[in-house]
Amino acid sequence: MSAPLILADGLDADAIAAILAARQRAVGSTRSLDDRPTETLLAFDLGGVAHGLPIDCVRAVAPLSKVTRLPHPPAALTGLVAWRGTVVNLFALAELLDRDAAGATAMIVLRHDAPRIALAVDAVSGVTTIARQPAASALATLVFDGDQRLTRIDPVMLIERLLPARLQEG
Question: 163 or 34: whose pLDDT is higher?
Fold first, then answer.
């Protein structure tokens, strides 16, 4: 199948083909820079600082419901909350990251079934896509999304810090 002949502004077919080829090379080189692997993060706020958690480890986002306090809980465990007919452990992420919190209004329920885990956050601001970062051995890593910077939370390290080893497989 042959393409129809294109004539414009007095250019012949060879000139148009050369222009199109040059444009295709330019677009191709730009595209190769943008073809880097990306990662989608759920962006949220803790004490005025933007953070992000990989979206694939998030089960749901919900308003913070009534918290049932526990006697002598571990430091970061705020208490228990009811969510969709189940009991969920609510952890203060600000406590774990040693940050000030303005006052939790939302919770992020993680994809961890036994036990269920939710993180208390000040506010959820949306979803952002960033260039995938090389694996870091830190709980929190500073990443950039255009002009915005946020702290990416590693979900595996987070669960390691929140739960005893026997409960981490969920």
Answer: 163
